[in-house]
Specification:
This protein is of the alpha+beta class. It has helices at 2-8, 54-64, 73-82, 88-92, 106-115, 123-131; strands at residues 17-19, 22-26, 38-42, 45-47, 186-192, 215-218, 234-237, 246-247, 251-253. Strands 7-6-5-8 form a four-stranded mixed β-sheet. A three-stranded antiparallel β-sheet has the order 1-4-9, with no helix packed on it. 45% of the residues are buried.
């Protein structure tokens, strides 16, 4: 209990990337739930340079899984029902421990970020991190270069294997060296999903609806076409959903 309590208030990870305060145009005209394009402002925050790796998540499982302090009330209820989640073998999915963890629910991702002294990024923060307030549609701008961890197949055959890259290996790093902001694995965000969420809300540090049925995931994955892997594409996922295509990264307050 004491160890997990100390970890909850640990220093920000040294490789977290500082993103200064910004005003930028959120959204796009590519899909109805990405509209309207609207100017919003965000305070400075930090975000993990990489997606959370298998090794990092398994440290959390060993050190803090049973500590109520790092779980929300809803997360504790999920943990009581699901035990140890999908299990280490499924989370690793036949890859080495430097790859992004997969098969984690929103509740697990939320608890891990709390343990690290952070939280899941809001949708607005995630979008800002992906394209740095630029025009996109990808972190590097236009074009679909070879080597990005997404699918170029036009017909989905399902997940035949978890074809990710290690979290640090990314030839097309995003702004400020952020890795795999699109492709590789989908990433959980803090916000509840609503199709019309962009049509209302605060102009500064906006958050999603107060309640909902689905959380929002962003960024696409190794099994998705590039059109799913833009800086602005939004998808809903139930918070207890477990997918071999879905991982996360954490955000932190700027001190």
């Amino acid at each position: 209990m004491i160890l997990a309590f100390l970890m909850l208030f640990a220093a920000t990870p040294p490789d977290a990337v500082l993103l200064p305060a910004i005003q930028f145009e959120r959204g796009s005209t590519r899909a109805p739930d990405e509209q309207p394009v609207r100017s919003i402002a965000l305070d400075a925050f930090l975000i993990d340079q990489t997606e959370v790796s298998v090794d990092a998540f398994e440290q959390f499982v060993r050190l803090a899984w049973v500590d109520d302090a790092v779980w929300s009330a809803e997360g504790r209820a999920w943990r009581e029902a699901k035990g140890r989640g999908a299990g280490g073998e499924m989370r690793q999915a036949g890859r080495n421990s430097t790859h992004p963890v997969v098969a984690v629910s929103w509740f697990e991702a939320d608890a891990y970020c709390r343990w690290k002294g952070g939280r899941l990024p809001t949708e607005a923060e995630w979008e800002r991190a992906a394209c740095d307030g630029g025009d996109g549609p990808y972190p590097w701008g236009e074009g679909e270069p070879e080597g990005v961890r997404w699918s170029t197949k036009t017909v989905s055959m399902g997940v035949m294997r978890v074809d990710t890259a290690p979290v640090l290996e990314d030839k097309f790093s995003g702004p400020k060296g952020l890795r795999h902001m699109v492709g590789n694995v989908w990433e959980w965000t803090a916000d509840w999903y609503h199709r019309d969420a962009y049509a209302s809300g605060a102009e500064k540090n906006p958050r999603g609806p107060a309640t909902g049925q689905w959380k929002t995931i962003r960024g696409g994955s190794f099994s998705n076409l590039p059109s799913y892997s833009t800086c602005t594409h939004r998808e809903p996922a139930a918070p207890d959903d477990v997918r071999l295509t879905l991982g996360f990264r954490c955000a932190y307050l700027s001190h």
